[in-house]
Amino acid sequence: MTTITEVAVRQQVWAGVDAGKADHYCVVVDVEGQRLLSQRVANDETTLRELIDTVTDLADGGEVTWAIDLNAGGAASCVQGSGVRAGEDGGRVV
Asked: N or C of the chain: less Cβ packing under 10 Å?
């Protein structure tokens, strides 16, 4: 008898956030550089938390690395407070 085992495919993704006053822009790519998400979101805590959940779902249990161009403010606080791996861009490559 042959047993078939399903294996969950987890992927590593990178999410970059360009923070603005009214809106933020997020792009998510996978290990091959394929764009998985490109989205503008309002500068609102609920919306930002929904974005974090969406990106986490895209990784399907894999690792998400975040980069954000600010180290303070609403977007940075939401990302840093969510327990995900994050780095500050600050004009430099993270």
From this structure: N
